[in-house]
Specification:
Length: 222
């Protein structure tokens, strides 16, 4: 009996932005392509992952990462975002277009509610998030053997730094994100935390904390 092996779609392995470029340019893919765009950038990362990885078998660690990533990807897509890449135990996602910052913040507010519910099911899913908004560069990185179309620039760097200082089940956003949201969404989701200095920056960055979506909010959006 012969098994029927179907070909997996390329969309399962590449970010949507890269798939669109391949569809448009084919073999004439522009390796020097770099585009400026207004985007909201989301980074996530599992807290204390190194310590956990030492305590559990690789297969258990893999299962935990996969379960956590699956929840995050589902939420990113539900709020109109695109996963640009997986970063081991976290991810980088991009939101563009109308309401980009509101959708990114609503996405993590939902995850702050959902992820703790899975705490301990496999390994802890204690995730921290960092979000920043502004003009980014989408560009090609790599050499003749391997190319990647990804986000570069200060906006993405600051989002990654915010993610790095976020506590478990905490989402931090910049003032740029806050100002890109409607007054109603600011009041619903964001609380001012503190100004934060980052190495290499001349001025402190205003940081806001995202409140988790309540069960009542989840029922209303269902």
């Amino acid at each position: 009996m012969h098994s029927n092996h179907s070909t997996l779609p390329i969309q399962m392995f590449l970010p949507s932005e890269t798939v669109e470029l391949i569809a448009e340019h084919g073999s004439d893919f522009p390796h020097n392509l770099a585009l400026e765009q207004e985007m909201t950038i989301l980074f996530s990362d599992m807290r204390d992952f190194t310590e956990l990885a030492e305590r559990f078998e690789p297969r258990e660690v893999y299962a935990s990462i996969n379960a956590s990533i699956a929840l995050q990807v589902k939420s990113v897509h539900a709020f109109g975002g695109s996963v640009n890449k997986f970063l081991g135990d976290g991810l980088l996602a991009c939101f563009s277009g109308e309401g980009k910052s509101e959708r990114a913040v609503a996405c993590v507010a939902e995850l702050l509610r959902v992820l703790p519910e899975h705490e301990g099911a496999l390994l802890p899913c204690r995730i921290g998030f960092g979000i920043n908004s502004g003009k980014i560069m989408f560009g090609m990185l790599g050499d003749a053997m391997r190319w990647e179309y990804t986000v570069v620039g200060d906006v993405a760097n600051t989002a990654a730094r915010l993610c790095g200082i976020a506590k478990p089940f905490q989402a931090l956003v910049t003032e740029s994100v806050f100002e890109d949201m409607s007054p109603a969404s600011r009041q619903k989701y964001c609380s001012f935390l503190r100004p934060q200095m980052f190495k290499g920056k001349k001025h402190p960055v205003g940081i806001y904390e995202v409140r988790a979506e309540s069960d009542d909010d989840a029922d209303k959006s269902a």
